[in-house]
Amino acid sequence: MRVWAIANQKGGVGKTTTTLALGRGLALRGQRVLLVDLDPHASLTRAFGVAADPAPEGVLDLFSTPPQTLADLARPSRIEHLSHVCAQTALATLERRSANQPGLGLALSQALARHSGQHDYVLLDCPPTLGLLMINALAAADRVVIPTQAEPLALHGLAGMRRTAEMVERSRRRPLPVSVLPTLYDRRTRAGQEALRKMQDDHGERVWEDAIPVDTRLCNAELLVQPVGEDGGYPGRALSSYRRALDWILAGDAEPMERAA
């Protein structure tokens, strides 16, 4: 079972869209996929049509005593092989609880260990803040995918996210590979072109050589949870780009496993 954290400390870069698009792509390839919404804003949860009030069972219950299991919390979707775990707005209270409840930083790792073998891929949609939930995700992940908008201000968020990933990698004493995915790219603007070029210059082979373009069809993330049609599930420019990006991430994911074999 492979665990990918979809993370960036800057908001508005397409984390939830990326989680949905990559998860959908994996499911279309026959992989058993679980998407876990770690963001108290619950955008991923709402995309699946789950109301925030009353609060559903979800990620917060992994931090309870005793904790629930991911298998009990997982909900099926309308896409074959694709399930999800909801977020609750009360996740925002976890930071306060952590002072009096030791061990919360490893709660997600422990839940995933108990869930081993039940899915092929688990994708963690992280909140845009460095806190307990993001640290949980990075501690548990086999890879971190960093969606980064191709615009100058987003480059600072990318640098900060890289530093955070390196800090967690040193702490857990095992590699945390990074895949940087340029998103919301508008090739018509000079600022977008220059930001993409600088991203690739500064971060090298960790950055995908292409970019996910701006596509108004993805403004509504619910498109990504609709059943697959004859189009193969990738209508439009952005989703076709996500398919190629998934190929790139999977190729990078295979390299360390081949070396370990």
From TrEMBL:
Q: Which Gene3D superfamilies match?
A: P-loop containing nucleotide triphosphate hydrolases (3.40.50.300)
Q: Where is the AAA domain?
A: 1-173
Cite the InterPro entries for this sequence.
AAA_dom, DNA_Partitioning_ATPase, P-loop_NTPase
Signal peptide (residue range): none
Protein's name in the database: ParA family protein
Which species is this record about?
Answer: Pseudoxanthomonas kaohsiungensis
